[in-house]
Specification:
Radius of gyration of chain B: 24 Å
Largest sheet of chain B: 5 strands, mixed
Number of strands of chain A: 0
Structural class of chain A: mainly alpha
Number of strands of chain B: 11
Strand content of chain B: 5-15%
Structural class of chain B: alpha/beta
Shape of chain A: globular
Number of helices of chain B: 18
Largest interface: A-B, 45 and 54 residues
Order of helices and strands of chain B: HEHEHEHHHEEHHEHHHEHEEEHHHHEHH
Strand content of chain A: under 5%
Oligomer: heterodimer
Chain lengths: 331, 438
Amino acid sequence: MTTAAPAEAAPHKNASGSAEQTPRFRRPGRIRRIALPYLLLLPALILELLVHLVPMVIGIVMSFKELTQFYIRDWGTAPWTGLSNYQVSVDFDAPVGEALLHSFFVTIAFTLLSVGLCWLIGTAAAIYMQDTFRGRGLLRALFLVPYALPVYAAVITWVFMFQHDNGLVNHVLHDQLGITDKPSFWLIGDNSFVALLVVSVWKGWPFAFLIVMAGLQNIPKEQYEAAALDGAGMWQQIRRITLPSLRPVNQVLVLVLFLWTFNDFNTPYVLFGRTAPQAADLISVHIYQASFVTWNFGTGSAMSVLLLLFLLVVTGVYLLLTSRGRKTADV
Amino acid sequence: MRRIRAAAVGAVTVSLLTAVTACGGGSSTGGGSNDSPKTLTYWASNQGASIEVDKKVLQPELDKFEKQTGIEVKLEVIPWPDLLNRILTATTSGQGPDVLNIGNTWSASLQATGALLPWDEKNFTAIGGKERFVDSALGSTGAQGQDPAAVPLYSMAYALYYNKKLFADAGIAKPPATWDDLVAAGKKLSGDGKWGLGAEGSNPSENIHHVFVFAKQHGADFFTADGKPDFANDGAVDAIKQYVDLMAKDKVIAPGNAEYAQNQSVSDFAKGKTAMLLWQSASANLESQGMSADSYGVAPVPVQSGAPGTDKQVNSIVAGINLAVFKNTDNVDGAKKFVKFMTSDEEQKVLNTAFSSIPPVKGAQSDASFNAGANAVLKDTLAQSAVAMPQVADESQFETAVGTAVKDLFADAAAGRPVTTDSVKAALEKAQQQMPTK
C-alpha cells in the first residue's frame, strides 16, 4: 500500500527539478531501488504464506468436514458437515464440549499464574542484577540456562525429578525436609497442575529477565539520583521510576509470554505424554488428542479455529487497552 | 552482481511456488506400481531392548534378502510411542515406506484409512498361501468379511512372570492359577519395600490389553455385535474395577505404578522389587536387564476359576506385529517378495528367536525351540486361550479412550481416593461419549 506514494511522488520531483535527460537514466535504477526491498522480502513472505497461512486456511476448511480415519488418506473427499464440528465443540452439556471447556479454564488459570510468576521473578531478578557485585556475570549466565536448554532435554529431566518413587522432588520434600506426610504424586492426579506450573515458570522466567534487563538499560541513572536526593527509598524508586519506565517493554513482554504459555505444547506433552491428567489438561494437548489420538481431525480443527478466534480477540483487546493507556499517558 | 541477486531471488521464488503446487497435489489412489524395482523402505517397530538391538538383528537378514533378489531394503526402526503417528502422517501425505510394521490391534483402524494393500487371495498366493498362518494370528489382520490389511509377522501373548526366589522365600509352592490365588500370593509377597505385582498404570495400551481380558472373563465385550461402542455395560465395569482393585483394594500393586508408562514395571521385576509381572514376551527384555533365565518362571495369566481356555477362561489377547504394504508403493512386486521372505519358515525362526516371540507361521512354530520353557506357555496360550482385540475401525480410539479412563482410575487409587462401581461406570460412560460419532 505504501508503494504507491513514493512511486508517484518521484516523477513529479524529477519533472519539476532536473534536466530533461536525467530521468531516462535514473528511472530504472530508482525503480530497482524501490523494488529491491520488496523483492528481498518476497522469500520471507512466501515462506510465511507456506508455513502459516496455507495450513491455517486448510485447517479452517477441515473444520467444516467430517474428517475421520476413513478420509485422512484423501481428506478432500471427506463430506462437508457444515457447523456440526463447531456445535460439538461448544455443546458444553455434552462430554466433548464439557471437556473442552474444562481444558480452557485449566489453560486460563495456568497461563495467568505462569505469566504472572515469570514476570514477577524475571523483573525482581533483573532489578536485583542492576547493582554490580562479585559474581554478577556468572549469576546472569546461570539464570539464562533454562532458556538456553533444549525443551525436551530440560522437561524430561523434570519428569525424572517428579517421579513418585525415585524422584528428587519427593526425596527433598519428604525424606529430607519432612514437609509432606508421604511421597506425593506429581505426574498424575491434581498435583500435576503444580508440576506443570513449576516447569513452565522455570522455563519462562529467564526470558522475562532478559527483556526487563534490556529495558532497564534505557532508564537514565539521573532519575534515580534525583529521586534519591529527594529522599525516595528503594520501593518508591521502583514504583515511581522503574515500573512506569518499563511500561512499553512490559506490554510486549506480557503479550508474548501470554501467547507462548497459552499455546505451549511441548511442556505438557513431554511431562505427561499423549493424554494429560485432568488437572493439567492444557488446551493445546487437548486439541492434539482430539485430532491425532481420537482421529477426529474435523472436530480438532474446529477447536483450533475457536482457539485462534479467542486469541485474536484477547490480543486485539489487549493492544487496544494498552495503546489507549499509552496515548493518555503521553498527553 | 545485481543480476545474480535478482536471478537468485527468482530461483528461490520459483522453487517455493513449485513446492506450494506440489503440496496441493494430493495423494495417489492407485494400487502401487513397479517404478522403483530395486529398492524398498521398511519401517520396523522396535521389538528388542533398543533400536540398536533391532538393527543388529534385522540388518543381516535384509542383506540376505538383497543377495537373493537384488533389492536393497532401507531400514528404519521406529520406537513404539511414535509408530502410530508416523503411520498416520505417512497415510495423509502419501509419502510413506513401502513395507511397514503395525501393531496387530490397529489392523482394522488402519484398514479403514484405505492406505494399506489388501491381502486378497492373489496376494496371499504370492507369499505361499493363507493356510501357512496360524488362525488366531489371522484373526488380528483386519475387520471380518474384508481382505486382511496385513500379514502376521510376530505373535505374542501375555503370561505371568514370577520370581522363583521371592516365591520360595514367601513359602509359595506354585504360581497362582486364579485371581484369588494371585491376590493371596501378592499379599504374602508385599512388604519391606517389595510388592506382589507390577503394572503400567499410565500406559493406555497396556491398560486396555488387561481390562479387555478381564472383560472377557466377565463375559463382557466393549463393542456390540454390530460394532457400536458399549463401554459401560455391567460386565465391563466389574472387569475394570477388578483390575484397578489390585491396587486400590487388594494392595498387591505399588501405588507408584500408577504413573509408570516407560516399562518401569519390567525393570522393577528384573531388580526383584516386584515378585510378579503380567507381560507379553518379556524374556529378551528381562535378560538384557541382567535377570538370568533360571531365576524366573513363566505361567499362564490367572483366570477367574479353573484353567485357561475359551470364553470366560480367556487369559490373553492375541498380541503381535503384522507386516503391511503401503498401497502406493513404487515397488509392489518387491514388497510382496519381501513379505514372502520375512514370513518364510527359515526367517521366522531367526526373527522370532531373536525377539522371544512366537512365529505365526505354522511351519516355523512346530520347531522344537518354540516348544520349551516360556515359549511353550506363550504358544499354548495363543492356541487355546487368547482372543483378538475388537477388529473394528474405532479400535485405536477405543484403546486411548478406555485405556486413559483406566489410567485416571489408577491415579485415583494411588491418591487413596475410592474406586467404586459408580466411579468406574462414570469414567467409562465419559470415555464412550468421547468416541467420534458417525
